[in-house]
Structure formats: C-alpha cells, structure tokens
Amino acid sequence: MMLPKKLTCSLLVCISIFSCITLLAQKKDSTIHKSILQDSLKLNFVAKMQAFAKRSAKNSADEFEADKATIIQIKTFEEIKRTMQKAKIYVNGKLDTPGIKREFKKIEKDLIVVGDGVFTNKGSSQTYRNLTATSKIVSELLNKANAGKLKLDVRLQELNAFQYQLDSLLSVPALFKFPTDSVTLTKYLEKIKVVAYETTPIESSLKEASNNIQSLLNQANLTVFKLETSLEEIESHQKDIAGQTYKREFSNIWESPDYYQPFNEILYFSKTKGLLTLKFYAENNMGKLVLLVLLVATSFIYLRSLKNIYLENNLLKTDYEGQLVLRYPILSAILLVTSLFQFLFISPPFILNVIFWSISCVCLTIIFRNFIARYWMRIWLIIVMLFLISALSNLILQASRIEQWCMLIASISGVIVGLVALLKGHREELKEKWILWSITFMALLEFASVFANIFGRYNLAKTLFISGFLNVIIAILFLWTVRLINEGLFLAFNVYSGQDKKLFYLNFEKVGKKAPLLFYVLLIIGWAVLFGRNFPAFDYLFKPFLNFFNQDRTLGDYTFSINSLVLFIVIMSISVIVSKIVSFFASDGHLAGGRDNKNERQGIGSWILLVRISILCIGLFLAIAAAGIPVDRITIVLGALGVGIGFGLQTLVNNLVSGLIIAFEKPVNVGDIVDVDGQGGKMKSIGFRSSIISTWDGADVVMPNGDLLNAHLINWSLGGNRKRISIQIGIAYDTDLEKCRQVLTGILDNDQRISKNPGPVVQFEQFSNSAIDLRIYFWTKHIGDTSATRSDLIIAIVAAFKANGISIPFPQQDVYLHYPDQ
After folding, report:
1. Residues 6 or more apart from 71 whose CB is under 8 A from it?
2. Which of left, alpha, beta for 671 (phi over 0: left; psi -120 to 50: alpha)?
3. Does an H or E element contain 258, and which?
4. CA distances for 630 relative to 73, 360, 413, 616, 622, angstroms
5. Which UniProt keywords apply (predicted)?
6. Out of 185, 581, 761, 793, which could bridge 777 as a Cys pair, Cβ 3.0 to 4.6 Å?
7. Do the beta carbons of residue 548 and residue 510 sit within 8 Å?
8. What's the burial of 575, exposed, middle or buried (CB within 10 Å: 0-12/13-18/19+)?
9. CB of 328 closer than 8 Å to CB of 366
10. For the chain, which residues make up each domain, given as ranges?
C-alpha cells in the first residue's frame, strides 16, 4: 500500500535523525578533532532538515489553497452557467417594448386632444365641465403611464440584477488563483476562455436591453411629469372657479360675442373627450357593470315569478293599483337596479350618469302609460325632454354663444312648465305629492339660470341649468323607486305568508300602506349627493369628509381606516340579511298549496342551513379581504375563541357543530314530520344553534341542535310519510266470520287514502269474554291522513255492520242468584 507523499517525507526525516543519534553514541571515545568535525556536520544537517521542513509546510499550505481555489472555481463556473441561462431566458422573454412605445405615444396624443380648451384654445374663460372631464381623462392617462412605467422599472431592475450577479461571479478572487502546474494551467485557461466566450453575448444583450429600457423609461418619466403638471394646472383652475362662483366670464348675452372656438370643433372635442372618459371608466369598472347586469337579470326573474303566482291565483288587478311593479317586470327590474346601484360607481363620468338616468326615464315612462293622469303624463314628458336637452348641453365642454341661447330658451321653458304645473291644478290626480316641491325648486333654479346666463355668468348658469331639471328627474325616479320597492315587499309577503320571525321579520301592518321612513331618508341623501355633484364647490366640501374616512389610523401594530371598518360591517350585514331572506323565502310556501309543491319546498328547505353557512362564509372572507385584516390577527381571535370554548362555551359549540352535522348528514330536513321524545310535529326550520318544531297543537318548540341529535328522533318523512294504523273490533260469537272479513276488506279497498301495497290485513286475534276480537292493519299513503282515515273507517264499519246484521257486542256478565233457604 502506497503512503501519501507528506507522510513519507515525515518518516524519512525521523529515521535520519534517529540514525544520527545512534552513530554519535557509538563514537564517544573518538578524538577531539573528530568530535569537533562531527559537531560541525551535525549542525549543517539540522539546518538542512529545518529548511526542508519549512519548504514542506509551505508546499502543503500552497497545495491546500490550490485545492480550495479549485473547489470555489468549479462552484463559480456552475453558478455562472446557471445565471447565464436564466438571463438568456429572461432576455428572450421579450417585453412588448413596441407596444409600450405605442401606448406612450397614444397617451401623449390623447393628452393633446383632451387639452383642447384647457391648455390650448383656451378662449376667454375656462368652463367647469371641461375641467372636470379633462381631469378625469388625464388622471386615467396618468394611471396608464404609471402602469407602463412600473413595468419598465421592474424590467430594468431585473436586467441590472442579472448584470450585477454576473459581474459579481466573474470578480470572485478564487478565479484568479492559477495552478502552478503548466498542464493544469493550460486546461484552466482554456476553461476561462470558454466561459468568457459564452458570457460575452449575454452581457452584450443585457447591456443593450438595459439601454433600450432606460431610454423608454426616460420617455415614460417625461410623460408622467407632463401629466402630473397638467393635473396640477387643472386643479388650480378648478379652485379658481370654485372660489369665484359668481364671477362674470363673458359679456352680456345681447352684446357682441367674445372669442369662441368654432362650434363644430367644440362638438368634436366634446364627443372625443366624452367617449374617452366613458371608455376608460368602463374598462376600470367592468366588474361592477357585469354585476349590474346580473342584478337586473335576478330582479327580473324574481318579479316575473311573482307575477306568474298572482296570475295563477287570479290576484292581479286590471288597473295594477298597488301592483305596478308587476306590470312590466323587466322594466321594473331595470329601473330599481339602476336607480339604487348607480351609487356603486365612485365618481362616474357625467355621460355614464346620463345613460343611467335616460334608461330609467324610458322605463318609468312606459310603466306610467295609462296609469297616471294624462295631464301629469304630459308634464313628465316635457320635463324629461328638457332634461335631455340640458344633459346634452352639459356634455358640451366649451362655451359658445349658440349654446348660451339654447340654454336661455330651455331655462325659460323650464320656468313656464314649472309655473303651469304648480298653478293650473290637477293636484288631486298626482300620485306622489312630494314631486311638487322638486318642481318648485326647478322653477327657481331655472329662473336664476336665466339671469346668470343673460349677464355672462356662464359656469353658474350652466350649473343651475342642469341642476334644475336633474333635481326633478332624480326626485321622481327615487320617489317611484321607493314606491315600487314597497309594493314589491308587500306583494312578496302576501304570497310568502307563513312567516318565521326567527328567520326574517317585517311588520305586515306597515308594509304596503306606507314606505318606511328609512327609505325616504336614503332617498334624500342620494338626491343630495347626485344634485351636489353639479357644483364646483361640492368636491372641496366633500373632500375632508372622505379624508376622515380614508385616513389610516394605528392601533398597536394594526393599521386601519374607518372606511375599511365600515366596509367590513356593511359586507357582513348584507351577508346576514341575504342569508335570512334566502331562509325566509326558501322555507315558506306560497299560495299554490298542493302536496307535490310541498314536497318540492321540503327538498329546497333541506339545503337552507348549508346555503346560509355558505353565504355567511363568503361574506366573512370578502369582508376580511376588503378591510385588509391581517391573517395573524385572525389566528389570535381563533386562539381566544379556543380558550373561551375550553372554559364555558362547550354547550354552544356542541349545538353549532350539531347544526353542521344535521346540515350535512340530513337525519331530518325542513318540512319533515317527526316525533322527538313523544313530542310530535313538523320541522319548521333548522338554524345554526337551534331548530324549531311546529307541534300539532300549534306551538313552536325551540330545541337545541345537540338535544335534537341526542334524542330518540323518529322521522316519519324518511319512510315516505307513510304510517301503519290498526283498529281493534269485537264481533258477536254467532257472526259469520268470513262474511265479516269480506265486508271489512271491501271498505278498506274502496278508500283511496289507504295504500294497496302493502295491502290491508284483517286478522282474527282471540276469543274474549264477550266477543271475538279482530284487528285491522292498513297503511295510509300520507301520515297527515291518519286521523281522518281512522275516523272515516270507524263510521263506515259501523254502517256496514248494521247493513249486514253484524253486531258489535258490549261487555256483559250474567249474575245468578241462589237462595239456599228457599
């Protein structure tokens, strides 16, 4: 076996030293001359050995460092290869730089277009509508530019990261420790040459890509700067207009006109800006628009089914008085949903609002046909026409003398219509009296608009002009929305009359007679918001209110805002309300009360608890996500609940878990006929903690779910709602038994409530003291018919026995008296 080189050298040194010592010991008697000579040789040998040891140690250290450098070199080369592969894949995964270039060019082009009337062709004065529309478009362009800029930033950071990683790997000191052996050095240099050959094109691609991205990023930064500057300028103009509401912008209307841009150019730029605003807003709120359509479809399906129920039961009135919501279900659904859920859209463009209001007006006009008085129908149509004119005028973003004259004529027409509606009468024919207040307000606003327009207060005149007609339209739409909602609730609760207060409760004495006060409070708030949006100062007055709700607040390590808390509460409240409404309508039948329909309702009712749990769980997750509550906070809450359960909530948790078991295992369903510990009745509802059983006596028994599972539960419905009944009869001893069997069999076969499979049985049981006892066994098709069937059979049997001479003896005893004395 060959020994390692270092170990061999050490052994040779030891053997040499040992040999020298032995030789010196054997020559003690040598002469002094020889001794001195030997000492000199000894010193030279030791020095040589020491020098040799130093060289060996240095060589060993050099070899160790060389081996260590070799290991590092191998790892570094492998890391360089992996990094090059990743960088190559990343560079080949091209970013759509031409698309980004086109996007930024389009942004700059749109900025030039939307800047008309604000940054270019300013005319003699700015207009509030033009500033508002331009601000919305520029904000959207800024969002698009920032999104593109973010992509470029991320791309540049990734490219720089790859470049830095490669440079770091190529600068590792171990790579520059060359082997001393010429053959190994040659191979190492060849390896470095290959790595350098492979790395060079990757580095060039990274540098080229970085330069291209950097140039695009410079352009993006410039575009973002332009947009931010434009927004600041627009905001400055808006503040000026808001602070100078009554300032004269133009000369009096009878004087020579100031400079205006040609009217066709104004229309072109107004149309372009309006469509751009609508396009951007629709792209950002596509989910809400889809939700709006789904809500319309859901409302239509429900109203149509409600109308079909009233048609089937001949409850629909010919004049639709109190049932107007059912006249045209699709139009009612569109009107209700668009009127209520337009508030889901935060700061929508005016053109979108005009679309919503126009659709609602068309729907309400068709619903009104032949329902309201002809006089008020004409007033309504005229106001709608004037509103559409004012809305189109409000979509024109720059001032012109043509528009001023049109506004003046329309405002005067609005004043005349308002005065005629107020003074001519026909108030007794008006369905909603509150409309008179909005018409009065319209006349006042239009009168003020006439004067502001005549004396050159263009912005004030236009604001009053659109606000006057809009106030009437919103008031009428909202008043009838409240009325139709109230009708819908009343009609629904008339149909779904078997109401369970534990699930959902409304007062029947109030619903239908008069809408709740809360509806009118919400109506006034919504009217104020939509009406106030037309005034320049509204945003500045409303901004502190929004800041109060949106401001972040810190409680310990948790950061929250009032807006997020309100959103959490609102989402959870909606979830609870929706779950209760679903429970209410799913657990109750309607006017069609056939037995087959009851079975269908029972099938639906068996899933009520699972549906409620699903709705509440979805609502909880949405509320947590919307409020931004951290997951670690939820785990803390769950831990606290665990402690609470351990100390005193075992019973509550047992009932909750039992409710889940009932929901999944389904030993009993809503509508099942049950007996629990001798208490018979029908399952009315299955809740989270407890269930309700309606007894045959009319009482509702609230039973915890844990007790329901632990009790000896008899579920008649699981067996097909059948029940076997027996009737015992005693007949006289002289009766023809076979004839009696035939009579009883005929009676049982003729009763349709008795099941034929298994069929009835007549069985003779015993000889009793006064009669022969027999018993009838039969199955009723439905358990609800058992008592009535038993009663009818007893009557029929007595009548048949009388007709056939069969007697039913009563118990008797013969007493014999003995007189021994006689």
Report:
1. none
2. left
3. none
4. 46, 42, 59, 19, 13
5. Cell membrane, Membrane, Signal, Transmembrane, Transmembrane helix
6. 761
7. no
8. buried
9. yes
10. 5-73, 83-243, 263-543, 560-629, 641-672+681-717, 722-803
Length of the chain: 822
* Type of residue found at 82: R
Asked if residue 168 has pLDDT above 70, the reply is yes
Instruction: For 318-340, give the secondary structure using H, E and C.
Output: CCCCCCHHHCCHHHHHHHHHHHH
- Give 307-365 pLDDT, tens digit per residue: 888 888 888 888 778 788 888 899 999 998 888 888 777 778 888 888 998 999 999 99
- Which DSSP symbol is given to 561? E
| Residue 334: per-residue pLDDT | 92
Look at residue 16 and give its three-state secondary structure: helix
Is the distance from CB of 112 to CB of 122 less than 8 angstroms? no
Q: Helices 458-495 & 517-532, crossing angle to 10 degrees?
A: 160
For every residue of 391-449, DSSP letters joined together read HHHHH--S--HHHHHHHHHHHHHHHHHHHHHHHS--GGG-S-TTHHHHHHHHHHHHHHH
For residue 298, the one-letter residue type is: T
Q: What confidence tens digit (pLDDT) does each residue in 11-52 have?
A: 334 334 434 444 444 444 454 455 554 555 555 766 777 777
Biggest alpha carbon–alpha carbon distance for the chain: 182
Rounded to whole angstroms, how far apart are CA atoms 756 and 737? 23
Q: DSSP code of 172? A: -
Beta-bridge mates of residue 553: 560
For residue 575, what are the contacts with CB-CB under 8 A and spacing of at least 6?
615, 616, 618, 619, 620, 622, 623
The Cα 746–Cα 764 span in angstroms is: 17
Q: And the tokens for 738?
A: 């076979």
For tokens 């005065």, what's the residue? 419
Sequence letter at residue 493: F
State the pTM of this model. 0.63
Contact 421, 440 (CB under 8 A): no
Backbone angles phi and psi of 694, in degrees to 5: -85, 115
Cα–Cα distance measured from residue 738 to residue 772, given in angstroms and rounded to the nearest whole number: 13
Name every residue whose Cβ is closer than 8 Å to that of residue 15 and which is 6 or more positions away in sequence: none
- Give the CATH fold of the 722-803 domain: Alpha-Beta Plaits (3.30.70)
Q: What is the pLDDT of residues 598-624, one digit of tens each?
A: 444 444 445 566 677 777 778 777 777
3-class DSSP assignment, residue 370: coil
Q: Find the range with the poorest average confidence among 251-260, 752-761, 800-809.
A: 251-260
* Rg value, the chain, Cα: 48
Burial of 212 (0-12, 13-18, 19+ CB in 10 A): middle
Measured CA to CA, the distance from residue 610 to residue 344 in angstroms comes to 29
Q: What is the pLDDT of residues 296-317, one digit of tens each?
A: 888 888 888 888 888 888 888 8
d(CA 344, CA 195): 60
Q: Cβ contacts of residue 149 below 8 Å, gap of 6+?
A: 217, 220, 221, 224
Q: Which of 334, 340, 431 is nearest to 380 (CA)?
A: 431
Is the bond preceding residue 704 a cis peptide, omega within 30 degrees? no
Residue in 617, 703, 696 with CA at minimum distance from that of residue 668: 703
- Please say whether the beta carbons of 335 and 364 come within 8 A: yes
Is the Cβ–Cβ distance between 583 and 501 less than 8 Å?
no
Instruction: Copy the structure tokens of residue 766.
Output: 């015993």
DSSP 588: -
Q: Are 328 and 367 in contact (CB under 8 A)?
A: yes
Three-state secondary structure of 39-50: HHHHHHHHHHHH
Bridge partners for 304 per DSSP: none
Q: Are 462 and 404 in contact (CB under 8 A)?
A: no
The answer to whether the beta carbons of residues 477 and 339 sit under 8 Å apart is: yes
State the Cα–Cα distance between residues 642 and 633, nearest whole angstrom.
14
Copy the structure tokens of residue 43. 């010193």
